[in-house]
Amino acid sequence: MAEETSQGAQTTAQLAAFNQAEHSAEKTASVHQRLLVIGDGPNDFGHETELDAATYQTLSVLHKHNYDTVYLNNNPFSFSMENACGATVIMGDPSDVATVRQVIESEHITSIVPTVGGLTAMRTVEELIAHDYLDDKHINVLGMPLTTVRLINNPALMNQTLRDLGEPVITSQVASTTSDAFDIARQVGFPVIVKSVAPRGEGDRVLAENADQLDVALSAAFERSRTRQVIVDQSIVGLKEVSFEVLRDARGTELLLGAMEDMDPVGIHAADSIEVTPIQTLTDREYQKLRQAAFHVARRLHIVGVMHVQFALDPVLDNYFIMKVNPYYDRVSAMLSRASGYPIALVAANVMTGISLPEVRLSSRFAKRTALIEPVLDHVVVRFPIFAFDEAERRGVKVDRQLTTVQKSVGATLGIGRSLEEAMLKAMRAAHYHNRDFAFDALSKLSDNDLIQQLIHPHDNRMMLLLEAIRRGYQSDELAELTQIDEFYFHKLRNIYNLEVDIAAHSGSEEWLQRAKYYGFSDGLIAQLWQTNADAVMNQAHTAGIIPTYKTVEPTAGEFSEVVPTFYSTYELENESRPLADNTALVVTTGAFRLGDGAAGEYVMSTVISELHQQGIKTVVVNNNPNAISLIPQLTDKQYLEPQEISDILGIIDLEHPRWVFVPGNRLKLIGALRLRHINVIVINKDKASKAAQDGDQFLTRVVYHTNKIGVADPVEIAQTAYHAPTHRLVVDNQGVPGIDAEPGSMRQSGFYNTLFSAFSGHSRMVTTALPFPEFGLLNKGTGINWIRMLVRALLDKTTAADRRDFSQGPFITATRGDVEMVDIPVNLDTRWRANLPLAGAQFKLGAKINVKFPYEFKIIN
Amino acid sequence: MTERYLILSDGTAYKGQAFGSPATTSGTIVFNTSVTGYQEIITDPIYHNQIIVFTTPTIGAVGVNHESYESILPTAKGVVVREVAEVSTNRQRSLSLDQFLRVHNIPGIAGIDTRQLVRKLRTHNGLNASIVDVADEHAFDQLNAIVLTNQQVSQVATPRPYANPGMGHNIVVMDFGLKSGILRELAVRDANVTVVPYTTTADDILNLDPDGIILSSGPGDPRDLGKDILTTIKTLETRVPLLGIGLGHELFALANGATIQRLPVAHQGMNHPIREIITNQIMYAAQAEEYGVERDSINRDQLLITHIDLIDGSIQGLRHRDYPAFSVQFFPDAAPGPWEATQVFDDFIELTGIRGEQH
Amino acid sequence: MAKEVVDAMAMQRALTRITYEIIERNRGIGNLVLIGVKTRGVYLADRIASRLHQLEDTVVPVGQLDVSGYRDDIANSEPTTKAAISNLNTSVTDKKVVLVDDVLFTGRTIRAAMDAIMDLGRPNSINLAVLVDRGHRELPIRADFVGKNIPTAQNERIQVSVNEVDGKDSVEIITGKD
Predict the structure, then answer these.
(1) CATH fold match for the domains A31-142 and A550-680
(2) Could you give the CA distance from residue A47 to residue A106 in angstroms, rounded to a whole number?
(3) pTM of the complete model
């Protein structure tokens, strides 16, 4: 192309000067720097493995460009710490400023990467800035100027900046008297939200829709305030909530990576909302207006990388408000990346180092210059939140199931289809993997009064509720009015309801089976409607040749030939997925996060995948968690973004004919179903952490390999751990624990086991269980040996001499730095869920950290 | 729901569900990858005699709005999509897409594997298609026998001049199949606009004493419009600031000695990066292109290449070296499309302003 | 009080338009020399040169003119030093010279600049490009290429900022004391 050559020729000093000068003051990185990537710290609410995924990709890009990189983290379930692409890994607390300073000094850091460590990393950097530390040391931050970092952590300053820019933000003012407060309310209009300044005890936000309510709210709020002041916010509850994600390079090129809308209105936390991409209910004018606004903000903040802007859109008054500005990688980035196939983290990492968007080189799987094409989709993606209230209620704890501005969901699934109905149904059944919770008549006994109450104040089960309302004859416009949900969705739900009625009326009909599948109904749902079982439906579909066609998830809507190996199923004409090879392993992951060891599960299964790849095996993964590290295309040869019901897995197996299917140990039904079909299942054994661990318990960890290819006597004792809530400790100073035998038959499958004993009670409570996944974090991080990889090699009969040595060195391989502790992080589920009793037990913990006295270099033998 | 068929001139037939008009129609089949703006796209006169495939899975969800018409009477020949939202939900709703298409005699067909269709169309350019009740031999015979007109412009452009008054610069728009977005952008800048038929002579246009002239976008192959128009453009560009858009850009290129070719694959969408060469900046704009200027045919002593598409390398903008005359292949009116492209109108108005002051 | 009248985007567009006009007026850029008036005019000249380079793949020489002795916004001030051209590695004789300045006000700076150019040789022509013409001319001087005409009162000031020295691109009107 002639244009290319003239581009290449433009290398005069003049042009370079021009490029730097006119296209902003952002500095470009030089390869002589030493970068510090600040880690994400422990997993928590709304913090799954998306940051670990982005970190892994970022480290790989930095490695490719020969950057000298240091990575600081203390998350035991961090995959990146064990697969750091050549970076120096420091075990230490990334949220602790003293630790970060120590690392900066001892490692001679020149630049900081804060964008893959979430808000925690941004806060750490802000604290460093606050003491002029970075300026004094001449350390720069990649991705944005220091002034922007400061804005992110200061909402008032951010609002002022946006207002100066002419971008609308929610009016928020402080009042010292009732009459001042009424002045504000008159000015911004009802409804308003009243909050106390410096409240005694818990803060509160009270919605006032009229003068009377405001009176009441004010007297309470003044009373509660220690300064006798209140904040009066303009309320935007009920508006449409949408997110736009943009990317900007150092030369000022900006592109829209994607946008999604929340089905639920403002007032329900975005993470608890049902989210849809591409945008469904915006006109082009509204869409372009918000795109422009997002660009405007990115320019003002001098972002070099990704930024997500959350808007509240008022479709009646035709205006909008900016609710949130996140100039770093987050769950929206992860979701849009999975949805479009555009490699957001990879491109953002390139751009952050100063490479311009036209210069970003992606793998040959993508069409030329894919980095510069604004992604467009020819499929619909729905993100469906998962709530875990039932777990609490099963333990007799009452929780408030109403959805509010506080996030209550613990995870999410993603459903992809060629219609909203299909995507919605796929996301829903991925979320409810027990069919009993997902029955169309689940709410038939609800009173009309309760129904209306819940329409206005939605709970976690609102999809079922909306379908129930449609069943009872509510009209779309009524429902739109009650729920503030766009009428479009009620037409779609009505369509689902009508299909349900029609399918039920045509039991056994091949034509209706075809149509049901086309709209995303699962075997299980159809079986319910036909009063048969899922196997019967699956067999009928199979016999009739109604089989899924897989389509590529790629960012150009079919315009270009992209060979991205990411697929979703639908029932149409053309199947684009071709089987990989003879030597293929299908890996079923732990799926969406529920409660407990979600991050540990992702960590273990991703390590399994990585080891399979290492062994020269082609890997295929099936998962539906938008935040999952196991879904990033760098780890596997092929990805299926699919629910994980038996028929979904079998559909993939029918196409791929994998030699092995790896399944986590808790998927008993699936394992049974696959074994019944003589499929070669390899189970990655696990047990729930909940069964274990009372204060003072100690465990002996062993590995068992039944065909004994590891070359040493089976079972091998490899470690001893102790538990004192909330700390799991790897014991290294012991003299061995003689006489602890596992109960007969308790270690039937190959894998890792924990035998519980209490050192204080004479081994009286001996119980052997499969090693809970979180304990792998402690083992690997504590010993510097990757036991998961070793297990995979053993399962494949590929144990190495080094493995045998490690195995035979047992018992009690020493930890790298004396005692290593893994500490469960308290999650305030009680407050979020407004539980009437404390939620205790291991399954109510979401994350953990490795405690270190001093940061040290972490190395692992993979 | 009625079943109907989309049949292609390569012999394939697709079964789908009918919506919109029950008419049987034929036209060239093209695909558009825009995610938003279905109403603007369907009503744009450049789709005269064409059947439009939308790659975005759902259209119709925001109904039909008065502000999104790009022409009063749309003349597209059909709409093909995976699914249509049959009811409008937008606040300004006046019609659902289904009703709208009925009124304008445009058939739609849903339930099509549009991804498979697009993957075919991206390598089979210029296929004709029909939307029919029965996909039998007779239907294919009819489709193969059809001769589509090459006089699209005369069928959609205004036959007589009209005014769109404003208090600002005096702009004459030559209508080759004008879309409303151009007038909207001129109105925003308070221009005093006279729209004239594309056959109007240079003298008649100059008698309107314009500060600037716009050659509008429009349907079809610019080479089918005849030499007189090129002569007119050649005269006008030496006298008054001039902006060509879409078909107008292709005519401007032809008038200045370049040649036009049919693109191997038509490109319709709004997600390609376009580089403005002079600043090396990248922008996005709506594009709907079946023809393009041949790069090697451009006389560089006369024309500057100002914009290129970074994906396919196509010429996206030209400028005369000696006169204040320029043109863009993309659609700067942002209806639909990204707003950064509208600065083309700012540039044009500024140019006319400066000339105005110098008179 | 500072009021922004030209933002970064508008400034870029103005320079782009001026560049096209220079090509148009000079029938090409073969014999062209740009001379920027220090400080900001130099950066503006650089930007025009890089635009020309983008378009034509030709490097147009850019000279720097120091007129710090001439403060044409201070009435009755006498020049303390003579204007001088530096960084120009080509003769101006028979060249088409385009003088580039940020603001055109009384015209005295430009007169000094023309003197300095004439001292170096005999150019084929001298044209003047300015980003802002604020009026109040005291000499019969007119710009050939104007980014923006901004009528101002005598007691107002025009502040042109360029990214290279000021960290931003803008034109502001300053009223009152600074």
Answers:
(1) yes
(2) 29
(3) 0.92
